[in-house]
Amino acid sequence: MEILTAAELLAAIGHETRLAIFRLLVETGPGGLYASTIGERLGIAPATLSFHLSHLSRVGLIDGQRESRFIRYAANFNTMDGLLAFLTSNCCQGTSCLPSMDGPDQGSERCCLAHKES
Amino acid sequence: MEILTAAELLAAIGHETRLAIFRLLVETGPGGLYASTIGERLGIAPATLSFHLSHLSRVGLIDGQRESRFIRYAANFNTMDGLLAFLTSNCCQGTSCLPSMDGPDQGSERCCLAHKES
DNA sequence: TCCATAATTCGATTATTGTCGAAATATAGG
DNA sequence: CCTATATTTCGACAATAATCGAATTATGGA
């Protein structure tokens, strides 16, 4: 993943309202929710909701599919997983955070970032 | 982690320049880099760099420590790991993404988000 | 004390983003 | 065809964020 793409994805969920929408869809799972349901659950005005759904959809973090008068939105887990992989890749050049080190503990700092195999 | 905190962290790295700074520090590891080194490597003007370092530092994604005339900045792995844990928590209510399912494959969608134990 | 270097703060400008009422579009049903 | 409902688009405004030259602060060495 390119850094510009990653920054766009992060900016998309770097807003309280959009993060709430995205988290709701992640917790809901692949089945997703209708736009109106999202709006009711989170208390967002229709025009504002549409603006944010459009933003999340444009960057590929969610997908929407029309079902008669409703549109069902669901999290795109592939996109999010790619982002997580980017964020955790090449941490510490793979050299600084070996499981065991000689000598006294070098500090309580958490290191490294890791993510399950995809 | 609260959603507002998570959104602030994501917004902080949801900007190309700040993401480049943060990724450079993640790849560098706990040793970190001097501000001037970061500026040289990424080609950022001093005032602009300071603005972004201050932002990342304020939200807790990096830490800076003065060493004589230099300030050494390093990624805060604890903060980032907390953010990753938040993003991957409670995915699909734990019910929709069991390793094996009966019936035909329900689609190629990636599910769920997972992160190593902390 | 004076100078050089590292980094931040200030100030002004420009650009982008978020919100939401009102109007428009899409779909279903009588 | 008309009405009701779901959603988006439009338009205008307010608020926030990003950039960077110039001035300022902090530190070390001659």
Key terms:
elongated, three-stranded antiparallel beta sheet, WH_DNA-bd_sf (chains A, B), 118 residues, 5 helices, WH-like_DNA-bd_sf (chains A, B), DNA-binding, homodimer, transcription (chains A, B), Arc Repressor Mutant, subunit A, 49% helix, mainly alpha
Short précis:
Two copies of one chain form a homodimer. The first copy, chain A, has five helices and three strands, in the order ααβααββα.
Description:
The structure is a homodimer of 118-residue chains. With 118 residues, chain A is mainly alpha-helical. Helix content of chain A is 49%, strand content 12%. Chain A has a domain at 3-83: Orthogonal Bundle (Arc Repressor Mutant, subunit A). Chain A has helices at residues 3-13, 16-28, 35-42, 46-59, 77-88; strands at residues 33-34, 62-67, 70-75. A three-stranded antiparallel beta sheet of chain A has the order 1-3-2. The longest helix of chain A is centred in the middle third of the chain and has 14 residues, at 46-59. Chain A is elongated and about 55 Å long. The two termini of chain A are 14 Å apart. The model of chain A is unreliable at 98-108 (pLDDT under 50). At the A-B interface, helix 1, helix 2 and helix 5 of A face helix 1, helix 2 and helix 5 of B. The first copy, chain A, binds a DNA duplex (30 and 30 nucleotides) through residues 15, 17, 34-36, 45-54, 66, 68-71.
